[in-house]
Amino acid sequence: MPPRRAAVSLRPPVPEQGSTSNDLMDATATSMDTLLKRFQSFRPPKLKGTENAIDCEIWLDDIEMLFDSLEYTDDRRVKLGGHQLQEVAKNWWLTMKRALEHRGTQVTWKVFKTEFYQRFFPVSYRKDKGAKFANLRQGQLNIEEYVVNFSTLLRFSPHVAESDEAVADQFINRLNPEIFTLVNTGQPNSFSEALNRAKGPEAGLLRQRSTSYVAPTPRPPQPSVQPPLKF
Prior knowledge:
It is a single chain. This protein is mainly α. It folds into two domains: about 45-120, no CATH class; about 125-210, no CATH class. It is about 65% helix and about 0% strand. The chain has eleven helices and no strands. It has helices at about 20-40, 55-70, 75-85, 85-100, 110-120, 125-135, 145-155, 160, 165-175, 175-185, 190-210. Helix 6 runs antiparallel to helix 7, helix 9 runs parallel beside helix 11 (about 190-210) and helix 10 (about 175-185) crosses helix 11 (about 190-210). It is globular. The protein starts with 20 loop residues before the first helix and ends in a 19-residue tail after the last helix.
C-alpha cells in the first residue's frame, strides 16, 4: 500500500522563533497564490463590465454558486471575486474599493454586491426586478422553484434583504395558504429555518394527495346502435 499523502493546508504557516515580518509576508503571499491557483482551476467566470445587465446577473449568480460550493469565507469572496473582473469592471472596482476604504467602510461581499448592482444594473432594470419581487407568490411553483425565484429577486429589494427576519416574513407570507399555515405555526425567525419548515409540509401534502387520489372507474363500452335498414 503506498504511503498516505499528507493533506495540503491553505493556511499560512506559523512563523518560527526568530523569523522576520518579511518571512511572514512571504508565507501569506504564498498561501494566497496557492488559493488563487486552486480557485482558477475551477474556471470561474470573468466579467469585463461591457456586458448587458442579464449577463452581469448571470456572472454574479455563477460566481456565488462557486463560492458557496467551496464554502469560501467573506474575505476570500471579496478578494477572489475582484480577480475575476477585467477591463472596465476591474477599473471600476479598484476605484470603488479605494473610495470605500477611504471612508472607513469595511469591504465585505455584501458591500461588493450592493455597489455592483448600482454600477452594472440600470435603474429601470432594478425597478423591474423589484416589482417582480413585490408581486412574487408561490402559486403553481413547488418550493424549490419558488426559492430560486425568491432568492434571485431578493437582491433587488435591499430594504428586505437587510434583515434575515424580514426575509423570512416575506418568504412565508407568499407561500400557498395550506403550506403557510403549517410553516407559520412554528414562527421561524430566519430564512433558512422557514425554508426547512416549508419543505417538510410540501412533501407531506404531496404524499397525502397521492394516497387520497382515486382513479376514475372506466365506463364500460357502449354497444353500437346500427341504423334500421331501409327496403
